[in-house]
Amino acid sequence: MVVLTGAGLSAGSGIPDxxxxxxRWERYQPVPLPEFLASEAARERxxxxxxxxxxxxxxxxxxxxxxxxxxxxxxxxxxxxxxxNVDGLHERSGFPLERLVNIHGTDFEVECMACHRRAPRALAxxxxxxxxxxxxxVCGGAWKPATISFGQQLVPADLERALQDAGxxxxxxxxxxxxxxxxxxxxxxxxxxxxxxxxxxxxSETPYDGVADVRLIASLxxxxxxxxxxIL
Length: 232
What we know:
- With 232 residues, this protein is of the alpha/beta class.
- The chain has one domain: Rossmann fold, CATH 3.40.50.
- The protein has a six-stranded parallel sheet. Strands 5-4-6 form a three-stranded antiparallel sheet.
- α8 links the parallel β7 and β8.
- α4 packs parallel to α9 and α7 runs parallel beside α8.
């Protein structure tokens, strides 16, 4: 089984889906990477957004859906989990790291845009909370949370692993994702074309609802523990 998770999985932990009506994207325009690199004003705007959302992410805790996926992975039932989320909830639930791909990066680290050194998020976050509009690395480069921004390429090895494993799985499951964000949404048609059974469980419509073998809309915090109990 290969699993793809999206923002709907973390909604039960109090992290809003930023694309939904009333989400933060209605109040904040995303800052593409080229803008971040070119403009101090853009970097300040980016950090205002990231600084505020970090408080929500840091306080969140894994919910029953995260815990159920972790139990399935530890029992050998999940070969790979690819997540579009950057909130670190899969890691905090104890999910085996060797079977986890954070396809859009993580908010729990920062990366220097000059020397590409990585460090714990707290190093830069503390500076921002103490009045530094744009935290900087010791080399002078601007820190940026280690998430994939618009205009920034995915890690090629991560994408290759996700697509390859989708093409060789027996069952592909999409959880809490609208399956509209590419290129990782191609995992679904790749798995289906290779003969895998497919399941989608999410509240929103997806482009693949009509061809999925199983389509569920019920709460993931109810569905996944029930699936775990049936299997284990």
